[in-house]
Amino acid sequence: MQLHENLIIQYVEFNPKWENIDNNLQYLTSILQGNKAIDLIIFPEMFNSGFSMNTTKIAETMEGTTINWMKKLSLEKNSGICGSLAINENNKYYNRFIFINQGKIIAQYDKHHLFNYSGESMVYTPGNEKVIFEYKGWKICPMICFDLRFPVWNRNMEDYDLMINVASWPDTRLDAWKSLLKARAIENISYVCGINRIGIDGNHLYYSGHSTILSPLGKKVKTKKIHKSLYQCTLFKTEIHKWRKKYKFLEQRDPFQWI
């Protein structure tokens, strides 16, 4: 795989139609028409359905409609494609982050910290494995929404350059979203992409978006609007090297680890 010092990212911040997978995939296809020379396209948490506990209606298999759509899109755009969706596997349900490149799944991560407050843990099975994978020379750590609140789980052992957190984070806790994203970027000296949805869902929760790309110093990365739901920015590997060389704080991290 070709190594890229710079990573061109597009992310989608939109209002998914509640539990309407076909409609959501059609909409996403329409706004991504004409995309070229993009390294990575990121969708929010449960982008194909909204954050629903109705697994009998929305959960798919790993050979289902949404993943096949993602595979096709990755080939058409020659881009990495990622986001989370409800997956049915061996009669268990997972809120699963999927990363696809060149029509193939290259990484998957099951949400570890399920959101008890919404009843997520009554329906979905938690993942127990932290995942770090490489794409175009960038080491990426996927997280999903509520995972953001747990710094030990997000902890960087100098093994990732970019954390991607895909979310359905309500406006009522917006201050926490902003503060936690910034904290994760600063403490881990890594880029952080926090990609959230907008609109009102089927549970009448309001989401105000505020998707944010942060530098290893916790500064907002310059982003341009391509479409009302589509944004673009560029990440630079040199920024990570520069600040980790200058601020060698990770060398003093505590030795505890997840086993």
Automatic annotation (TrEMBL):
Top EC category: hydrolase
EC number: 3.5.1.3
Keywords, ordered alphabetically: Hydrolase
Pfam families: CN_hydrolase
Superkingdom in the source lineage: Bacteria
The keyword Hydrolase is annotated on this UniProt entry: yes
GO MF terms held by the record: 2-oxoglutaramate amidase activity; omega-amidase activity
Name of the featured protein: Omega-amidase YafV
Organism: Apibacter adventoris
